[in-house]
Structures are given as structure tokens and as C-alpha cells.
Design a protein that fits this description.
The chain has 183 residues and is α/β, with parallel strands linked by helices. The protein is built from 7 helices and 5 strands.
């Protein structure tokens, strides 16, 4: 199942792009960290990302969501983040990444193309997103470097209107798929 990963800093517009792709008929794998944070905040833990098992919880949810998507046998699937993003988050927070996370990244073979969704020039705070715009720029760079170090192919998605960004992603996917057929 060919897959494409959307990554970028918090507030860059990944989820809006994902929703658009989903409405257009593409299966999606939801981002996990925000949901892990939201659940644990609802359970009374104010900053779950500071817990030693946070990355493990995110990875576990990512794995379950990925397996669920694989059962649909879709032609293309879009992933809102991946285990590489979880590694970038560990680096950003100064956490030691769990060995299971590093093993999962080593096993990733299907999704090698990553759309790096660039920041929109601002960040709106939420209960789970407590990052300044300046911090988000640093975090964006950590994502970029982490994916490059792991050997992924990055496709830049510059800031702009949602429809323009989605169209650029679809065109890039069409080009990538056409190139794959030729080889």
C-alpha cells in the first residue's frame, strides 16, 4: 500500500490538508500524539508529554492506526505524521527515544515520501499545542533534519491557501506514481 506522510511543525496546516484529502476520497491515518495528549489531559494529567512512557504511547497508537489502514487495501493512504515525527518530538523535548521507536523507523519501507508542510507564519495555541511560533520554527527544522537523517525523500509544501497546498500534493503524488511506473 503506497503511503505518503505529512509532517511539519504544529499549526502548519497538516490536519486541514489531511481533512481535504480525506473528503476527496483518500484514506488517512490520523496523527497520534495530539490524541494521546488529549486523552491524558482529560484524565487529569496536565503535561503528558513529560511522562517517561509518552513516546511509547504515541508509537502504540500510531501502529494500531496504521494496521487498521492496511486492512482497507487502498491504492494510496496519507499519514498525518509517522514514527519519525515521534523521534523528532523526543529530540525536541530532550527525551531518550525508546528502542521500539527506533526499531519501528528501521522497519518503515512503504512510506518513503514525506510532504514537509511549512509553517503558515503563526501558531494557534490549544490545550495540546503549547508552543510559540519561534519554537515551532525550531521544531520544523528538527523534523526536516530527522527525516533527512532517516533517509526519507522530502517534498516541500510551502505556505499558502489550503486548496493550493492540496493540489500541489496531489500533483506530486501523480508525478511520483508516474515515475514509479516508468521504472
Amino acid at each position: 500500500m503506497p503511503g505518503y506522510i505529512l509532517t511539519g511543525a504544529p499549526g502548519s496546516g497538516k490536519t486541514a490538508i489531511l481533512r481535504h484529502l480525506e473528503v476527496d476520497g483518500h484514506p488517512v491515518v490520523e496523527e497520534a500524539a495530539t490524541d494521546v495528549i488529549a486523552l491524558h489531559q482529560a484524565l487529569g494529567l496536565a503535561e503528558p508529554w513529560r511522562e517517561p512512557d509518552f513516546a511509547d504511547r504515541v508509537l502504540d497508537l500510531q501502529r494500531r492506526r496504521r494496521r487498521r489502514a492496511e486492512t482497507h487495501g487502498a491504492e494510496i493512504v496519507f499519514h498525518d505524521r509517522s514514527p519519525v515525527c515521534t523521534l523528532a518530538l523526543c529530540r525536541h523535548l530532550g527525551l531518550t527515544p525508546p528502542s521500539a521507536l527506533l526499531d519501528e523507523i528501521e522497519r518503515m519501507t512503504a512510506e518513503r515520501t514525506v510532504f514537509l508542510v511549512r509553517n503558515q507564519g503563526f501558531v494557534e495555541a490549544t490545550a495540546a499545542r503549547r508552543i510559540s511560533f519561534e519554537e515551532s520554527l525550531v521544531f520544523e527544522r528538527i523534523h526536516e533534519l530527522t527525516y533527512r537523517e532517516a533517509g526519507f525523500d522530502l517534498v516541500d509544501v510551502p505556505a499558502g491557501p489550503l486548496a493550493t497546498r492540496v493540489a500541489a500534493i496531489k500533483q506530486a503524488v501523480d508525478r511520483l506514481r508516474a515515475a514509479k511506473v516508468r521504472t
